[in-house]
Protein: Saccharopine dehydrogenase NADP-binding domain-containing protein
Amino acid sequence: MRVLLVGAGGVGTAVTRIAARRSFLGHMVVADYDLSRAEAAVAALGGSGGRFSAARIDASDRAAVTALLERERCDVLLNATDPRFVPPLFEAALAAGAHYLDMAMSLSRPHPERPYEECGVKLGDAQFERAAEWEKAGRLALVGLGVEPGLSDVFARYAAEELFDSIEEIGVRDGANLTVDGYDFAPSFSIWTTIEECLNPPVVWEADRGWFTTPPFSEPEVFDFPEGIGPVECVNVEHEEVLLIPRWVDARRVTFKYGLGEEFIRTLKELHRVGLDRTEPVTLPDGTRVSPRDVVAACLPDPATLGDRMRGKTCAGTWVKGLKDGAPREVYLYHVVDNEWSMREYGSQAVVWQTAVNPVVALELLATGVWSGSGVLGPEALDPRPFLDLLTEYGSPWGLREQ
Amino acid sequence: MRVLLVGAGGVGTAVTRIAARRSFLGHMVVADYDLSRAEAAVAALGGSGGRFSAARIDASDRAAVTALLERERCDVLLNATDPRFVPPLFEAALAAGAHYLDMAMSLSRPHPERPYEECGVKLGDAQFERAAEWEKAGRLALVGLGVEPGLSDVFARYAAEELFDSIEEIGVRDGANLTVDGYDFAPSFSIWTTIEECLNPPVVWEADRGWFTTPPFSEPEVFDFPEGIGPVECVNVEHEEVLLIPRWVDARRVTFKYGLGEEFIRTLKELHRVGLDRTEPVTLPDGTRVSPRDVVAACLPDPATLGDRMRGKTCAGTWVKGLKDGAPREVYLYHVVDNEWSMREYGSQAVVWQTAVNPVVALELLATGVWSGSGVLGPEALDPRPFLDLLTEYGSPWGLREQ
Structure:
């Protein structure tokens, strides 16, 4: 299998390190807007980098991406950029006749009049609209296949198939106890994406209402995370799982809650109050136009570079409540990565490593023909068991806790 | 008297409107980096604008400012820019043989090792260092003559001369009950300057310790402001009065506390946590370099344009505690501006109008010879009574409250 990886940031770099250990990969072209980042990712592989090459690409230039896919005869495009670049990369893969895989879906737009009650354009809408064309082309766009969305969706399908007869609620719950030495404030994941997720109206799905939205940070709850992380305050945020799971898995309610913690929520609220979360440019006195959210990101350390100073564990998982053999059951299916382990094993910090391992597992399932399909599919559209087994084989097992 | 006004922002524009009603003014050149702002200020004066002209100037270009002062034969430069431009304008006036007047002094730099205990470079240090040259030239640099610093310093000198035999503490206290319709967050004064004041280590003066610093937002107290404003939480911030008053007025302690309110303090703390208060440029992905604090300012509405949506009053004043005729005495000398009044009378919002009226009063005292001197002087170096009387004559009386 020949892969075009677009994006050599934290997640993209971790993808190369994980894929370099697997034999399914024929060749991976590592492409980035900043060629030196792509080259650095390949160089860091050292002796195991023989199947990798670096290239420069502007992810917003659909024609250039299509040309690169064709020139390099790639079977699949793996998108590891921020979600702004989903539309051009998704289209470029279709135009080149390649499969496509991403870890975040096309962006939402709030309802113009009732943003905190009704959905406007939903996450992934722009991609699902094109499903018929992907089917017709016989190509697969596997969307939302990182850890969350991604592994969390696989857990949901697995629960429905093997653990429950009927499901009342599926709630993805994400929490961590990571700290970064020497920084007052240093998010462990892209602040651009985090702002997008957290300040957009959160979306909830209920069987009798469909999708609807709430005000930001709604329905706070304290969730007890496993493996020593402990209780963290979680709130509703907009996330792909809520848009994906109900398409393939029966449940009466689907939510996503993020363990942001009180402090982080306060920071996000203040950024919003001042207008610094905005992406539309503002004009400085000297005429320069900049997107305030880009400036926020530029003020903070690059999360991919913080691994050495980070301590703690991150947990992604899916809590499911329903009935099995007539009795109530409640489980939390989860995946924990200890930063100390991911740094030692891969030189990647926990959050980006956990995101990166899942699309590599998916690529291997596609390369070996265990997974196949056409159209625009979420991770829960495919057989969960081989995915979970292969993840364990990658040295990163998942867990199940009966509540 | 011929005046070069540098800066046609909110305060500069209000200066033109106040000065246009006074006969002492011979001519005022209104100069700004953005010529259209200067032209708009002059045009807004309509029929009373005969003594005003507009010019373009880069306030950071000392030679150009000197040349403009000479070409226009100005007696005095009135600096209404932000404090970054104090050094070049102060030097340009000296080089041109003009008097100089500003409303904020040259900036401080924190102590490199013990920023929250000891002073580094203090506010105004760079100006007071040059005092001998101003004296030698027979020219006057009257520094810190807005409302705070400015009127607050005049109050301190007045209290020492007429109300007290000995003073234990002089505490400048600033509070308001202003709100801005339609905005979640819309500071009524330059956010650039507000961040500078509030996030620098606050400075305190005590007779037996001299100047020293504390952590930001220290010594919170609730101060009850007059004329219906009521109680507001005030905290120590760095301000010129603490550096000026002890040079000319005997007191055992001098402080400045700003009625920021809890919400505003929270916002400033979060901006600082993310690093958005910084002035040193950060680099965006496309290579653009911007100062985060400039971006914060660009995200917010220009406070000078908010007058129509503002409601409430702003109060500047000086609280003094000491002995008179052997008995304890405590007074608050204050000046309140109601936004509704300043908008109706001058079309200027309350905070900028209150800042602007004081340097115009000072210019009139200099033009009429009531005030004179040479060297670098603070407002408390000169006779306070004529200043306070003339302020009342301007239609904006001050008050005294016995505590």
